[in-house]
């Protein structure tokens, strides 16, 4: 499968614990996005990277959330001291941007479903 | 910031009929409008998109129209089939590769 890959697919954790999710984008895609989706809602933007640089962070991304893309390939999203309100589907997407001529759509992964109990 | 609204939240049509889903947006700077289809338990998948320099785009049974003055865009599905049943999200962004602001989604049910 050459699509966007996310691991784990499901994560159940106790309130107060830290969790980390991983996203492997489509090979050669230089942009990587994180979104959060709760039941009955559309995906909400969290942050995105151009290669290893984090270009924008949403106000939704509190101090407990941190995302990295150290080598410009895979990315991790960490949530510290999880709260029940963090329960959601965390979606990763990637795209390729090279000037004006090369500009792909955002391809989504299947997400990591987090349940905080 | 951008606000994208979708109404209604559910739509039921008879197989073979047409379905129209409408969205409005608030930021006049938005110039890219994709539509994503999400089946239960699966990833959102792009089905069609439109940029602000065109008013309509078609791809087989699917079309999207854009009215920049009124800040709304619509998805049209003709000859609906049961496999079209899913949640459809509209979105908007400034630039095709910027963050997307999604609507809440509409659940389309196609009755056989």
Give the helix/strand layout.
The complex is a heterodimer of chains A (117) and B (112).
Chain A: E1 5-7, E2 10-13, E3 19-24, E4 31-37, E5 44-50, E6 53-57, E7 65-68, E8 75-79, E9 88-95, E10 97-98, E11 102-103, E12 107-108, E13 112-116
Parallel strand pairs in A: 2-13
Antiparallel strand pairs in A: 1-3, 3-8, 4-5, 4-9, 5-6, 7-8, 9-12, 9-13, 10-11
Chain B: E1 4-7, E2 10-14, E3 19-25, E4 32-38, E5 45-51, E6 56-59, E7 62-67, E8 72-77, E9 86-92, E10 101-102, E11 106-111
Parallel strand pairs in B: 2-11
Antiparallel strand pairs in B: 1-3, 3-8, 4-5, 4-9, 6-7, 7-8, 9-10, 9-11
End-to-end span of chain B in angstroms? 41 Å
Largest sheet of chain A: 7 strands, mixed
Looking at the chains present, what oligomeric state does this protein adopt? Answer: heterodimer
Structural class of chain B: mainly beta
Q: In angstroms, what is the radius of gyration of chain B? A: 13 Å
Q: Kindly state the percentage of residues in helix of chain A.
A: under 10%
Number of helices of chain A: 0
Q: Pairing-aware structural class of the strands and helices of chain A?
A: mainly beta
In terms of per-residue confidence, which ranges of chain B show pLDDT below 50 for 5 or more consecutive residues? Answer: none
* Proportion in β-strands of chain A: over 45%
What is the element string of chain A, with H for helices and E for strands? EEEEEEEEEEEEE
- The value of Rg of chain A in angstroms is 14 Å
**What composes the largest sheet of chain B?**
6 strands, mixed
Number of strands of chain B: 11
Overall pLDDT of chain A, averaged?
92
Count of DSSP strands of chain A = 13
Mean pLDDT of chain B: 94
Distance between the termini of chain A: 32 Å
């Amino acid at each position: 499968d050459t699509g966007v890959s996310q691991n784990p697919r499901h994560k159940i954790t106790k309130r107060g614990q830290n969790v980390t999710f991983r996203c492997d984008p489509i090979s050669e895609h230089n942009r990587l996005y994180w979104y959060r989706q709760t039941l009955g809602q559309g995906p909400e933007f969290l942050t995105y990277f151009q290669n290893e640089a984090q270009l924008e962070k949403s106000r939704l991304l509190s101090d407990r959330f941190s995302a990295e893309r150290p080598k410009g390939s895979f990315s991790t999203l960490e949530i510290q001291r999880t709260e029940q309100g963090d329960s959601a589907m965390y979606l990763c997407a990637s795209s390729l941007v090279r000037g004006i001529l090369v500009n792909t759509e955002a391809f989504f992964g299947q997400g990591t479903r987090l349940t905080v109990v | 910031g951008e606000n994208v609204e979708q109404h209604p939240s559910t739509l039921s049509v008879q197989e073979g009929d047409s379905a129209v889903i409408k969205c409005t947006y608030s930021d006049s700077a938005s110039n890219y409008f994709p539509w994503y289809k999400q089946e239960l338990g699966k990833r959102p998948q792009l089905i069609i998109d439109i940029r602000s320099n065109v008013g309509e785009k078609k791809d087989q049974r699917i079309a999207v129209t854009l009215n920049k003055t009124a800040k709304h865009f619509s998805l049209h599905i003709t000859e609906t089939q049961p496999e079209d049943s899913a949640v459809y999200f509209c979105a908007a962004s400034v630039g095709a590769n910027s963050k997307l602001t999604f609507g809440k989604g509409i659940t389309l049910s196609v009755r056989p």
